[in-house]
Amino acid sequence: MDKVQFTVEVTKETAASIQEIVNHQNMRLKFGSRKGDKITEEDVIKAALSDYLDLFNSSKNVKSLLSIILEQEGFSSYHIKNRFKEIMKRKGLQQVDIVNMTGISKTNISQIFNNKYPPGLDLFFRIWVALDCPPLNEVIYLDYIPESATPKEDD
Q1: Which of 8, 22, 107, 113 is the residue whose CA sits 20 to 30 A from 69?
Q2: How many CA atoms are closer than 13 Å to the CA of 13, on its beta-carbon side?
């Protein structure tokens, strides 16, 4: 299997959180059935990324579940939107900083930050990392579209 190596910079707070997870998991291993095993910070990051990718790749199942929920609440569809712009401002950054950190064009950053179009996984991940990996529930939200605003299909 071909591999690609990434280098990731995180805040001290994020690094401390990762270290807490490592310490916790190693403590569990020490008293569990796998006493000789140890995990590293890299293992935690790989696992988190793997979980995110699994969630992303299973979006068809999630989308089906969401459509059931939305129909029950009187909404016929939704748009997945992001709060990258707000998070960027909260961190004291400007769009040009994100452009420089990610290599994404200023035009694309502007369109993504203004929710003109959703970014693909590659662009999403590059922006997310540039913003120090904020919790996904703070980054992504659903913009519900009421049934009355959705055109009906002819029978």
Answers
A1: 113
A2: 5
Beta strands in the chain (DSSP E): 75-82, 140-146
The pLDDT tens digits for 3-17 are 888 888 888 988 998
CA angle (85 as vertex; 57, 106 as ends), nearest 5: 90
Among 2.60.40.1510, 1.10.260.40, 3.30.450.40, 2.60.40.10, what is the CATH number of 74-155? 1.10.260.40
Lookup: tokens for 28 = 């569990």
For residue 131 the two structure tokens come to 């913003």
Q: What is the pTM of this model?
A: 0.51
81 pairs with which residues across the strands?
Answer: 141
Domain chopping of the chain, boundaries: 11-57, 74-155
Tens-digit pLDDT profile for residues 42-95: 888 888 887 777 766 655 455 555 554 555 455 557 788 999 999 999 999 999
